């Protein structure tokens, strides 16, 4: 979270590590049903099918999408990891297996001793009997003040590698901290996958933070944001994909749909050679002298 309903017809907006091959990615935008894991899994599966039909290899979905982002949901009974990793995920697993799309999606979880805003990664896996793996590699590290009533911050960063391209994981408020994206970049990420949820009044901040993270680090940013209503909450969408200079390659307003573009590893290299903030970053600026 960083505090209009979606249209009924999905809309697609299309823009133009070890891999040198472009990786097609999508930011998926839709409304989530408050507290209805099964309905939200079905929506995620539908968006995965839509993405797979357009050659997408990685689909990013919004913050807390599988549970819904709403105070009443957070204050109530949340699913446990076994719930989101078990048979209730099968509709999404089936689409991942059918399309080959890796899906990155948020969920609010009860982990017993603590609650977290977590990232679920569902991906093809030839080493598993069912051909699909699901894992929870990341918990949101920067928990907003309004979320601290319920959730604890995660203790480590995480990345996912798809087709030889490393992609850092991020949840909403994480992207407001330059050092979070910097850590992903330093670890080898060529892209930064942000699951988010922005309330009315937050568009100007949303549209500053994520292009800045792209420009700071000379890498791509994929922002997937909630839209519509969820319980008593409303969200403004604004999902987008930014190039390594912070330019929007594809973006949505508040409609349901996909923003699609490609991550080009060679453009990351070229941009970092031209705009060297990533290389010239200093670990310390020394003591401060006051004149």
UniProtKB/TrEMBL annotation:
The keyword Hydrolase applies. Transmembrane segments: none annotated. Residues 23-265 form the CN hydrolase domain. It is an enzyme of class 3 (hydrolase). GO terms for molecular function: hydrolase activity. Gene3D superfamilies: Carbon-nitrogen hydrolase. Keywords: Hydrolase. InterPro entries: C-N_Hydrolase, C-N_Hydrolase_sf. Belongs to the carbon-nitrogen hydrolase superfamily. NIT1/NIT2 family. This is (R)-stereoselective amidase. It comes from Nocardioides dokdonensis FR1436. The lineage of its organism: Bacteria, Bacillati, Actinomycetota, Actinomycetes, Propionibacteriales. The gene is ramA.
């Amino acid at each position: 979270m960083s505090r209009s309903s979606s249209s009924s017809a999905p809309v697609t907006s299309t823009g133009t590590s070890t891999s040198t091959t472009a990786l097609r990615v999508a930011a998926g935008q839709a409304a989530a049903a408050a507290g209805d894991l099964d309905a939200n899994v079905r929506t995620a599966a539908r968006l995965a099918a839509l993405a797979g039909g357009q050659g997408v290899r990685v689909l990013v979905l919004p913050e807390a999408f599988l549970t819904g982002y709403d105070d009443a949901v957070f204050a109530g009974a949340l699913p446990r990891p076994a719930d989101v990793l078990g048979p209730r995920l099968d509709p999404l697993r089936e689409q991942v297996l059918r399309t080959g799309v890796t899906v990155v999606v948020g969920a609010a979880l009860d982990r017993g001793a603590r609650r977290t805003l977590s990232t679920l990664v569902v991906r093809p896996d030839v080493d598993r009997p069912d051909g699909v793996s699901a894992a929870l590699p990341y918990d949101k590290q920067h928990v907003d003040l309004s979320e601290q009533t319920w959730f604890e911050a995660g203790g480590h960063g995480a990345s996912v590698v798809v087709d030889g391209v490393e992609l850092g994981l991020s949840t909403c408020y994480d992207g407001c901290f330059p050092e979070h994206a910097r850590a992903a970049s330093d670890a080898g990420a060529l892209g930064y996958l942000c699951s988010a949820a922005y309330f009315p009044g937050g568009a100007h901040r949303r549209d500053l933070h994520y292009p800045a993270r792209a420009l700071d680090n000379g890498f791509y940013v994929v922002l997937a944001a909630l839209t519509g209503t969820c319980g008593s909450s409303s969200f403004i969408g604004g999902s987008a994909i930014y190039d390594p200079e912070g330019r929007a390659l594809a973006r949505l307003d508040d409609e349901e749909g996909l923003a699609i573009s490609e991550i080009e590893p060679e453009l990351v290299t070229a941009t970092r050679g031209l705009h060297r903030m990533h290389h010239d970053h200093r670990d310390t600026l020394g003591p401060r002298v006051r004149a």
